[in-house]
Every structure is written in structure tokens, then in C-alpha cells.
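Re: the 383-residue chain
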Amino acid sequence: MKKNKKVIKILKAIRWISIVTISSTFVFSVYTCMSLTASNEREKTSPHWRDGQFVNPQPLVNHISESLLTLFRKSEFSSPFENLNIDKPDPDLYQIEPASGLRVTWFGHSSTLVEIDGYKILTDPIWSDRPSPLTWAGPKRWYAPPLAFENLPKIDAVVISHDHYDHLDYKTILALNEKGTTFIVPLGVGQHLLRWGIEDSKIIELDWWESVQIRDLRIVATPARHASGRILFDKDKHLWAGYALIGAKHRLYYSGDTGLFPAMKEIGDTCGPFDLTMIEVGQYNRAWPDWHIGPEQAVIAHRMVKGKNLLPVHWALFELAAHGWTEPIERVLVKAKELNVNVLTPKPGQSFEPDTNKDLSRWWPNLPWKTAAQDPIRSTQLD
């Protein structure tokens, strides 16, 4: 009997140690991935700061009840059933300058390596398994990064569109910091990086329409219609943005996450025309029509900003919405044909030069998907 009691005590002790360990790991994981929420004086002087937070000129619509219902209406094809046909780029490729001066490698979702007129820029890089503060919970990526992190070439700058987990990845940022790169972020997002130990000298914060010059490459933070926040208590405490990359010969536009908004025409007039636009097309829902632009409106936005070639991004890596995973690209192609827009469809990991690579064939499976008529995504307050 005494022996049994001793065993029970040991088991209880092990149980409590396990609980404490798991809880500590949970708290530490969340704590390290989050940041301080306090605002600085520069944020408060921004014309986009109001009543303690950043605001959009056209506020976002969000139907909470409808959002909850979508949890029970998820497409059976919201994630792939089989391994995807992706490319694994040769690291030696990046030692050779692109013949045209502009080359892009899309790694899935919104992560790209942009080589523009002699400079290498990463957009919203994520090499982690999940866009989450936890390593064991949250949407899991559908395939390993096409390019191993250690095979990345020297990066001139990393541009971050906003602080949501699928765009600002803690582990990737720390790894890039070891490479000595510069981080260009919207106003306030630098607080996260400082909290994670990134030196202030490596962080450049920009408000909308502000720019930074990296020798003869100019990077402009452009307006976007979205939101920010990594915890319940820091909603919209940090700005969100898109970017215009303006080189000696080429111009590229990256939308970040955004709904459609009138100032896209101003982006085209001010920073365009663009040789390539990289506009988000996936992870949309009618319950939150202003948070993500949707496929048809992405094509419309491409024309508003005066784009020549369109690379659809923000799809084909994570399940973050209820629609079928191939639906965004199918709908983009339909709308692009209607508006005579040239869409580039590389495999994840496939490098291409927009003006010379015309052999980007269909690589995704033929699955059922809803049309624009069946499930329209239309941003509000566009007049």
C-alpha cells in the first residue's frame, strides 16, 4: 500500500511538472512572438492615427455572426489532398543577375524574393511551419520552403507589410537578422523587432507615402486597406502598408494585405506604371469584404495601379479561409481574360522574369470552385 501511495505521489508530481512545463512553454512562445503595444510619439503624429490607433480612410466592414457561420461552410477542397508540384530553385541561380534586370521567385503565400536592377528584396518572408505564436497550433504550411533558408543569397532589404503572423514571422526575422539585413516596416511595426532584439539601426519605419533610398533603389510605403495586431489588446496599434520598388529600369508594386480602395489609382499615378504587380488574391470571405481584396478585385486593382504583368500572391501555402484552395487563381484567370490582363502563374519556388518567361503553365489540380457570381467579394465604400 505504501508503495502504491509513493507511485501515486510520483505520478502526480510528474503530472504537475508536465502542466507547468507546457504552460510555461505556451506563455513563452506567445510572449516572444508578441510585442509591446505602447505607441511612440511618431505614431501619434501620423495623419492616419486617431483615438489611440491607426485607421483606414474607408473603415473595414466585418460581419461577426456571418464569420462564425463560415466555420461550418468550409469547402472540402480548402487544403490540398496530395503533395503539390513545386519547384526547388538552384541556389546558384541567384549568383547570376537576371538578363532582363527583374526576376521574382515566389515561395508561396506572400513570400517572394525580388531581384530588381541589382538589388535583392524579400517580401513578408515566412520559413516557419505555422503562421502562429505557437509551434504546435495554427494552420500548417502545405509544403516545405522551396528554398532552404541557408541557401538564400545576400539580401539588401526585407519589406514587411504588417504584423499579422502570416506576414511577420518571428523565427524568420531572427534568422534574417543574423544575416545582417535591413528591415523596412510600416510605422510602429519596428516595436516588434526591437522587442525581439533587432538593433534600431537595422530598422526603417515608414508612414504611407514615405520612402527610403537604398543607393539607386527607392522603396515607397504605399497605402493599404487592412488592419494589424498580434494579440487581443494591440488591434491597429501598428500601421499596415504596401510597397512600390522603384529601380533604375524597373518598377514593382506589392499590395500587402488589402481591400480595394480608391487611392490605388493614386498609387499608379504617383509610383507607376509597374512592370509587375504582386497583389493578394486569396483568403477572402463575404463576411469581411474589406480585409482581403478577392480575385476579381485584385485584377481591377492591377489596372488601377497601372500594372503590366500580375503575379497573384497570398494563396497556395496556408488554409486561412473557407474557400477552395485553387479558387483564387481560377477566378483571377477568368477576370483577367475579361479585362485583358496578363497573369503570371509560376509554381511555388519557380523563378521567372516577367518580360521573358512566358512558359508558366498551369500546375494546380482541376478542382471544384465557386465563381464570382456564386460568391461575390466586393469591398465597401468605394465611391
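The chain is about 25% helix and 15% strand.
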